[in-house]
Design a protein that fits this description.
disordered N terminus; elongated
Length: 153
């Protein structure tokens, strides 16, 4: 009798960890970089409209010896490049070997959700892009860098 209870508890634990699924309601997903911060930008449905948001990925992930892992308010790894293919995030991140980088990938759809048109991981919501839509439908000239560098969207 104890085995079915254990299996059921394990099923709920797996569901709690993998509660993502933004891809079904979002489009125009892309990576935006400002200095060493990589963010996910997407236009997501809210009702019959959509809105753009930008989520700092280091609020959702960290690296452990170069390997990307989900973590609330991650360690802001010094990855030198990140790309998005579908929902797969692939980054070159530093390993414990000085100067050596490891290519690591993780499916962002397993963690990140569309919360009322805004990307979200753990309890961290993304910032809205901007009021005025651009050609991609995701805002315009919103600064992601506190030093004042502007990245056009």
């Amino acid at each position: 009798m104890k085995v079915p209870h254990f299996v059921l508890a394990g099923a709920f634990a797996s569901y709690a960890i993998a509660d993502g699924g933004y891809a079904k309601d979002c489009q125009d997903m892309t990576i935006v970089q400002s200095d060493e911060i990589f963010s996910l930008k997407a236009s997501c449905k809210v009702g019959n409209k959509s809105q753009c948001s930008v989520l700092d990925l280091w609020n959702c992930y960290e690296t452990d010896d170069g390997i990307l892992k989900p973590k609330d308010k991650g360690n802001q790894p010094r990855c030198k490049s990140c790309d998005l293919s579908g929902t797969m995030l692939e980054c070159d991140c530093p390993s414990s070997h000085r100067g050596h980088y490891v290519k690591s990938s993780i499916d962002t759809n397993d963690l990140i959700v569309n919360d009322q048109g805004v990307l979200k991981c753990f309890n961290k919501s993304a910032d809205n892009c901007a009021q005025k839509p651009s050609k991609s439908g995701c805002g315009n000239n919103r600064s992601l860098n506190p030093l004042g560098y502007i990245l056009p969207f």
